[in-house]
Amino acid sequence: MRIVGVMSGTSYDGIEVAVGEFRPDGDVLVMTPLGELSVGYGSGLRNRIAGVLPPNRVTIEQVCVLDTLLGQAFGAAARRAVDEIAGGRVDLVVSHGQTVFHWVEDRRARGTLQLGAPAWLASAVGVPVLSDLRTADIATGGQGAPLVPMFDALVLGGDRPRVALNLGGIANVTVVGPGRAPIGYDVGPANALIDAAALRWYGEPFDAGGRHAAAGRVDERLLAVLLAEPYYAAPPPKSTGKELFTLQYLEEAIRRSGATPGPDEVLATVTELTARTVAAACATHGVEEVVASGGGVRNPELMRRLAARVPRLTTSADLGVPPQAKEAYAFALLGWLSWHGLPGALPSVTGAAEAAVLGSITLGREARRNPPGRLKVGSQDVGGRSTDTLGGHER
Prior knowledge:
Blueprint: E1 2-8, E2 14-25, E3 28-40, H1 43-52, H2 60-84, E4 92-105, E5 108-115, H3 118-125, E6 129-131, H4 135-139, H5 149-156, E7 162-167, E8 170-176, E9 183-189, H6 192-202, H7 211-215, H8 220-227, H9 247-257, H10 263-284, E10 289-293, H11 300-307, E11 313-315, H12 326-339, H13 347-350, E12 360-362, E13 389-390, E14 393-394
Parallel strand pairs: 1-4, 4-6, 7-10, 10-11
Antiparallel strand pairs: 1-2, 2-3, 4-5, 6-12, 7-8, 8-9, 13-14
Helix pairs in contact: 1-2, 2-3, 6-10, 8-9, 8-10, 10-11
């Protein structure tokens, strides 16, 4: 199968698309990466996404409009991938959608919402689309996140203790090792607070190259307040998102700290927060290597701070998977599993009562056939006498 994975993460800076070809070889699934592309969100669409995120008050009209616009954007990106990477032929598209809310209450996930109406992708590409991948795991008692650990566990194996680290808006880890089931969970913010600070103080969507953080010094009073967040001490399984780690959250932490850091100091501090919380999580599991991916890999200041605190830091590129596109390939894998009726979530990661087959299918043009020419309404009695009705007349 050739499968297109379409991913937009919590940083909502654009759409990552990857095309993988999957071929079973005994009990091994071989994935051949065919290529990937990135499509940035225009400022208008990015502003619409920001406008529906907590703590903003939102109308149903805003949600409906954004759901449609995102579906159209995802469809156009998937169509480009089919034409430019896959030679015009794919079998399935998997769309993660854009997460706008992840409902967690009393440490339990109650629901989740990803926008990007899948019918627009099915119309653009013409093949089935798998979407809404998180809800099935939540319905069986899981967190619905993270889902990439299935990909990580299959790629890394369990021969030695390693962590697959994703640095998106939220940092999440997958821990594998000999003699234990894989575990994975959201650690805390990766780029969420960095991006929020860059936008607030510089009007920039992210700290390009980590230059602002590199120019500043860590404010220890602010860092202490941020590190006191109860979420870090909670045991897995757990998940979080931008519902918690917002600009308002950061501004409140600054107020409570009594500090008056400048913009570069704020950026240095939240970058250090990501490095410390990720390193602490890795130390808990005694891993020998951390394999990083996600947009944060392109932040050299964040990677420098991480490298100083973990045993060995590499990226998924060493495994043949481009760091920026790893999640898109991971969701393509989940599509292959769901298409074959196989579970895509790991209960040891999400805490679900059972492993769930993920997603809902929206059929494409290729599934369409002519409808029946007529509808006959009726029933059959016990003696075989027909009581069919046509136009209101019994016969």
